[in-house]
């Protein structure tokens, strides 16, 4: 187990290093001021409290969708509905924040729970379709993302749009529903505390509970899980309900933490980014914050580089693509892994002989 973890750390680190080297080559090849571009890209996110705050603000929704995808992928359920779950969770938060009249603490709590439930409903539909009719969750979840989008836009335009806003936006979110800022000089809000708690709970759930064990065993080998008496249909549904709830929570917290009105006119993209975070974290909840902060750092650095130099921020897309290609490539560093396995087996055989 320890050798496998070491291999994954080395492989992921090397993939990131190769991607960064390629990015550096592109910057030096295309920029007339590579020094300025690199300074903004690498140091920019750390040069002020506000910029570092931007990194953490961006990392919060990425952690939620990363957790959501990690739990679903642990059960080998390739549900891509975190994007729709995140969006509909934001719609749910908008509905409760505008329609309900509640005290300061209860108001955001109710909005987040409602958004999470809507996310769970949307994301779990592919699970029920798979259990009932063996429909692939990959295709059905992709289609449901757009159902969630247009359902949300319908509600926004016909029931919650403020005609005096001058744009397609909801009525203002009341102050009682807003999440408080926890670090002055930034927009880092209480969602950071909530997501930290969820990281711990998700890790405990996956590795310390019966249900988490069933999810992991089903993901490793579904047939073995069935022969062991595990109800794999229940596991398939449970993993995607939980993933949807986390994605919906993320959308709710993003709206209540950073927006005065609901203004999304398209899918925000955090669900797709959550897949990248989950891949970087190897579907382990404890590593999700690292993957999320890393990706957020790249995004903010690229944005600062685009504003302060002649290099466009699309360079981050290249980095993301290279990292994913190397991490998912099974043959990448396979010889190194075989050597680790051989050394471990040799040590065990020597101990056994003694």
TrEMBL record:
GO MF annotation list: transmembrane transporter activity
Upper lineage: Bacteria, Bacillati, Bacillota, Clostridia, Lachnospirales
Cellular compartments per GO CC: plasma membrane
Location of the protein in the cell: Cell membrane
Full protein name: ABC transporter permease
Pfam short name (any one): BPD_transp_2
InterPro entries, alphabetized: ABC_transp_permease
Alphabetized UniProt keyword annotations: Cell membrane, Membrane, Transmembrane, Transmembrane helix
Transmembrane domains' residue ranges: 12-31, 51-73, 85-102, 108-129, 141-160, 188-206, 314-333
UniProt membrane topology term: Multi-pass membrane protein
